[in-house]
């Protein structure tokens, strides 16, 4: 199980490296914001730990906060990225190259 | 059911990767973002299908709370405040990892019955997640100007203190791995990491902040991947690791654009380290000018380069600048915008702000392209930019920004700097450009100054 997981980990790392090889400066901020939204995936961790039966008030409170944090990360991240990118898009329409 | 979840996860990964690939090109970026978001939605739904899920009310509560906070925050944030918003969203992600790791510790009785790698991965996630959460909060505080932008350090004690904190956290983690189930140890790990996160980001000067946010972003990704190892969840491993790897590359690209090394940034103390005797710099004379003179000077120019900076963005002057440029163009004068890679407070930030004001894309010139044009430029109009024009980056090896690529504004025939006062830039360094004989200063709020210039141009 560990070896499989590590294999997945290493391969995913290479995918990450490969995808971001050459990015124009202009897109650094939106790209940072976009990758930022993706690590909101930690939400799944909160869902599993809470959903598969966490007991005790403190545990539940901590997990609800964790789920809320994860949701903020995802929803906020994608929306903010979209707002930034849509500003570039407006131009592309007026100015077909 | 587990097979279905596995298949849905794989679809989600494909969408993440495809979406990210889209984000690297201007044409495909908007679509790429939504493709990645769709992948995220699929991953969440798949996880909710896990057999034996309960606590539905609490799950719903968490998601609704998060959406209620996240959606309005993302919708309302001003474009100028984008960097700190990204820092904040990143921070809560790290916070979520740290909290989940803590609960893991509590529910497994200190990882008693778990394999060794689960304990190690979970503690690593707790450590990095906590650093990322607190570091991001400090980055937010600095960019929002709740905290001073200047570096705050313990001087020589800084490095030893950081190392001690890291050792304390690791020692507590090792004690847990060795079999202790005392919760205080887990709290020590989280707290030492929290203080470490604060201590690492506090000394970092303003200009380096984008790189730090990107680095913290990569850290949160790595901590999510570690959490995935601990929970044996492939979705977390893949998405976390993709962000960890691409975030590291992006951090490196940003650092290169500023000619800074990442270890040097993390070691801290950037900005304000060369404290000049304050008496000498106050005494130097500057030439100030008026909006009317500026308008006349520009009306008789052939080439004008606008150098926008964060000051222009804060004053919301971009629309006025656009109007000014249109008036000048109507007179047959060529206008270009010189965009430093880190103009604003993040790479690409200024492009976003100018795009918002409908400035034509082809007038935005990147640094390498425009620097060769400055000698042929009649008027360089510097609007609220400071550190990115500071010649000390080329000439003064003692300056904290020495080596940072700058816009070669001082090569142009005349320079007009729009600035509120003689205060120093975000990095806290005096700018020699303001004292050069070809430079004149137009003091005042950028928006009203540009507005006055526009009025004068209309009357000419």
Topology:
The complex is a heterodimer of chains A (97) and B (460).
Chain A: H1 2-19, H2 28-38, H3 42-51, H4 57-94
Helix pairs in contact in A: 2-4, 3-4
Chain B: H1 2-23, H2 29-48, H3 56-76, H4 82-107, H5 116-143, H6 158-177, H7 183-201, H8 209-231, H9 234-257, H10 262-267, H11 278-283, H12 291-299, E1 303-308, H13 310-314, H14 318-330, E2 334-339, H15 349-356, E3 364-366, H16 367-371, E4 379-383, H17 392-395, E5 414-419, E6 439-443, H18 446-459
Summed up:
Chain A is mostly helical. Chain A contains four helices and no strands.
Largest sheet of chain B: 6 strands, parallel
Average pLDDT reading of chain A: 86
Mean pLDDT over all positions of chain B: 87
Count of DSSP strands of chain A: 0
Spatial ordering of strands, largest sheet of chain B: 3-2-1-4-5-6
Q: Name the poorly predicted regions of chain B.
A: 269-282
Give me the number of helical elements of chain A.
4
What does the overall shape of chain B look like? elongated
Give the helix/strand class of chain A. Answer: mainly alpha
Biggest interface between chains: A-B, 85 and 113 residues
Unreliable runs of chain A, pLDDT <50, ≥5 residues? Answer: 91-97
Number of strands of chain B: 6
Strand content of chain A is: under 5%
Strand content of chain B: 5-15%
Round the Cα radius of gyration of chain B to an integer and report it.
25 Å
Structural class category of chain B = alpha/beta
Helix share bin of chain A: over 70%
Tell the overall outline of chain A: flat
Q: What's the helix-strand series of chain B?
A: HHHHHHHHHHHHEHHEHEHEHEEH
Oligomer: heterodimer
């Amino acid at each position: 199980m560990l070896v499989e997981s590590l294999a997945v980990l290493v391969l995913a790392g290479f995918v990450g490296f490969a995808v971001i090889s050459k990015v124009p400066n202009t897109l650094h901020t939106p790209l940072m914001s976009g990758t930022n939204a993706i690590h909101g995936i930690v939400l799944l961790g909160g869902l599993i730990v809470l959903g598969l039966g966490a007991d005790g008030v403190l545990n539940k409170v901590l997990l609800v906060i964790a789920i809320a944090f994860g949701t903020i990360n995802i929803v906020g991240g994608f929306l903010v990225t979209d707002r930034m990118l849509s500003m570039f898009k407006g131009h592309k329409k007026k100015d077909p190259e | 059911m587990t097979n279905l979840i596995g298949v849905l996860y794989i679809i989600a990964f494909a969408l993440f990767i495809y979406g990210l690939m889209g984000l690297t090109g201007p044409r495909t970026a908007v679509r790429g973002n939504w493709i990645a978001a769709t992948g995220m939605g699929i991953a969440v739904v798949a996880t909710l299908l896990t057999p034996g899920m309960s606590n539905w009310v609490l799950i719903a509560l968490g998601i609704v709370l998060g959406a209620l906070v996240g959606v309005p925050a993302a919708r309302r944030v001003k474009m100028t405040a984008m960097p700190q918003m990204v820092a904040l969203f990143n921070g809560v992600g790290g916070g979520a990892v740290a909290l989940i790791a803590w609960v893991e510790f509590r529910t497994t009785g200190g990882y008693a019955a778990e394999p060794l790698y689960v304990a190690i991965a979970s503690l690593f996630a707790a450590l990095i997640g906590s650093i990322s959460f607190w570091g991001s909060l400090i980055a937010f505080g600095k960019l929002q100007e709740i905290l001073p932008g200047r570096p705050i350090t313990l001087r020589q004690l800084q490095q030893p203190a950081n190392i001690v904190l890291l050792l304390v956290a690791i020692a507590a983690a090792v004690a847990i791995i060795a079999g202790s189930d005392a919760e205080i140890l887990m709290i020590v790990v989280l707290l030492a990491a929290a203080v470490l996160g604060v201590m690492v980001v506090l000394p970092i000067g303003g200009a380096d902040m984008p790189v730090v946010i990107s680095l913290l972003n990569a850290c949160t990704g790595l901590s999510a991947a570690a959490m995935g190892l601990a929970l044996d969840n492939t979705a977390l491993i893949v998405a976390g690791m993709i962000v960890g790897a691409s975030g590291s590359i992006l951090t490196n690209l940003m650092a290169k654009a500023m000619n800074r090394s990442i270890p040097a940034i993390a070691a801290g103390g950037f900005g304000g380290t060369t404290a000049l005797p304050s008496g000498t710099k106050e005494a130097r004379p500057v030439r100030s000018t008026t909006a009317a003179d500026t308008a006349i000077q520009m009306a008789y120019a052939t080439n004008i380069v606008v150098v926008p900076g964060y000051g222009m963005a804060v004053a919301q002057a971009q629309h006025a600048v656009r109007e000014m440029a249109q008036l000048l163009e109507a007179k047959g004068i060529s206008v270009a915008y010189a965009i430093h890679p880190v103009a604003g407070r993040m790479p690409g930030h200024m492009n976003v702000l100018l795009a918002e004001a409908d400035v034509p894309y082809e007038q935005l010139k990147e640094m390498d392209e425009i620097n060769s044009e400055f000698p042929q430029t009649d008027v360089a109009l510097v609007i609220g930019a400071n550190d990115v024009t500071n010649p000390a980056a080329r000439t003064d090896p003692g300056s904290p920004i020495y080596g940072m690529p700058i816009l070669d504004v001082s090569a142009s025939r005349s320079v007009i700097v729009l600035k509120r006062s003689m205060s120093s830039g975000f990095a806290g360094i005096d700018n020699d450009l303001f004292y050069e004989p070809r430079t004149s200063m137009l003091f005042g709020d950028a928006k009203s100054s540009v507005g006055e210039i526009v009025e004068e141009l209309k009357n000419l």
